[in-house]
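Sanity check

After download, print the first record. It should look like this:
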Amino acid sequence: MRFYSFTALNHGGTIVAMTRERFTLRSAIQWLFVSVRDLRANSPEGMAFKNVCEAGMALSLLLATAVVSGAQTTSQQQIRLHYQRAEEALRANHSQEASNEFREILRIDPRNAEACANLGQIAYGQQEYAEAAKWFSEALKIKPQLWDAKAFLGLSDMMLGRTTEGDPLLIEAFPHITNQNLKVQVGVSLVRFHMATHSLNQVVGVLHELEQSAQADPEVLYVAYRAYSALAAESLDTLYKKWPDSARVHQIFGQAAVTQDDFPAAIKQYRLAIEADPKLPGIHYELGRTILTNSQDSVALSTAEQEFKTELASNPWDADSEYELGETYRLEAKLEPAEEHYRHSIQIDPNLGAAHTALGDLLLSKGKPDEALPHLEAGVRLDGDDETAHYKLSRAYAAMGRQDDAKREMDLFLKLRKKHASSRPASSPDGGGNPIK
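Expected structure tokens:
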């Protein structure tokens, strides 16, 4: 539970003010004595009397100020004591005792915004949302910039079904919330509400900030997945209604078929997309990759090769197509052109781990372990979850006599293979079988 501490109330300067008041009071008394001395020294009677009257008035005013200041200091001390007691009660999970202490603070200082906010916190924790909303509203009347209180007022309104009041409060407060747990709670509530009301476009910024601030939170990741899925579904629905036979619609249907391992259906949809728009960016790569996944016979290899070349004709800087073209040549045992395309792929994108691993493996097969090693190590570094990369690196270390390193990589390969076994059929670590990008 967020606790609004006493330090937020202690405006400072009390001791300094009291010291200044004592000094001024001493001066006034001295002034009074000087005036009396002047009177006794036969000063003009009217002037001396006037001085005495002025000093007396100043002394009376300062005495009154000192009394008020003393009362304020006592009130601050009492408030501090009640806050300490409330904090101890909250730590002991004695919410009623804490509530009593905060009410005592309000008896002393009815405009204590933090005490109101803390009473709201206690009520919210007890699921008394109407009571919580009352106290948070009171706190914000006194201090409108208590962002946590504004966030909790919004959450309370949402729990009470007052979404038209709660939603704007949450949107306003969200960027200013510094408490991480509260920020996640508010962000998730906003995304869920707008997902339910089909208005996610209003909180895309909230979703992005939520992901950045809580990347390891499973609830945030799940809500983000649901939100993006909903946005994608809405976009697809609009696209299909307006352009049902467009190239993009067929491409999306092809991608959906791939996710279900229905490669013949995917190939059909990709070809329909090409009929609709032969220059659609990426479509020839996707078709070629799906053909290779579906079959690696001579016809499939020849057809896939042509698709990758077509993609590269319109986009010479497509590292993925360069890599896949190298894979096609490798499967045809054409190692020289395979090596050429692997190298070109890495030249375009040095961070393409699959290309490094493929090139390293090819060089290792040529008996060049020293030249292969940097590429195989890069493959593991760039994609540590690729079991095949660890297997091939293990072979390279073994060929170089580095048995300890070879054993380490083989252990990692076996560990990853076991981890992945439940999600896909086993395949030879020497084969291709790279996932569609």
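If your output differs, re-run the checksum step. Summary of this record's structure: The first helix runs from residue 14 to 40.
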